Amino acid sequence: MIMEIKKLTHSDVLHILPDRDVNAHKGNFGRILLFCGSRGYTGAAALAAMGALRCGAGLVYLGVPESIYAIEAVKLTEPIVFPLPEEDGMMSELAMDKIGQILPNMDVVLIGPGLGQSAGTFAVLKTVLEKFSGPVVIDADGINLLAGHIDLLRGRTAPTILTPHEGEFTRITGQVCKDRIADAKAFAADNQVILLLKGHRTVITDGTICYINHTGNPGMAVGGSGDVLAGMITALLGQGVSPLQAAACGAWLHGAAGDICEKEIGQYGMLPTDMLKVLPRLLK
Fold first, then answer.
1. What is the pTM of this model?
2. What local confidence, expressed as pLDDT, does residue 147 receive?
3. Is the predicted pLDDT of residue 4 greater than 90, yes or no?
4. pLDDT above 60: residue 1
5. Which residues does residue 83 pair with via DSSP β-bridges, in sequence order?
6. Domains, the chain, ranges and CATH?
């Protein structure tokens, strides 16, 4: 089968974004749940949460290990931050009861940025994939935790989006990526997911349709940039954008924000927080 390859423009993205009803309230723009962060990785959780808010999410809930709760609560004024039981600075299996209570009230879940890898964080991932009936975005350590457990993806009926860079993609497939488009397509089709394979000319595919992203620059190659992107995609899903288009639009907007920063401050010294500041300019 010949795969359809697409390229977005700014006009395309604005056309895809849903209109906002004058009578709408915050609940209409998505209840977003993030499981992110661990001891030493508080920035990843904060950047993902702000990426979601800057991309239009109505309500952002951020679950973090209890030892970093106070840090995140100081960092973040807009998201709703709550603590979860932990072990060695990462979420523990004791968090499952609280997670099970909150999941049914959410529209979309993001899991992974700064999460860490342990028996507890794997239990969180497994619980989300098996018990949550809505879309899930898996990034960073969420992807690493899938290595050897890809079968968890195949059992889902709701959309799942994975956002690996090539190193993470190799980790979960066991093979070095040789043809980015072909390999991404095969993985997405085999595992019934949407894959966003990060890098120069990011590839976004559901196994049938493929978007190649043409925004972005090397100044964005800095820790935290991917966390912002994961939050953005999650927010778009929560506002009703279809999963493939949410991933493709998120990649375009993320790269375009980086391009604005490149023009205004240059590639050297560009930070994810700079991208967050300019992102709203692209949404009007």
1. 0.98
2. 94
3. no
4. no
5. 64
6. 31-283 (3.40.1190.20)
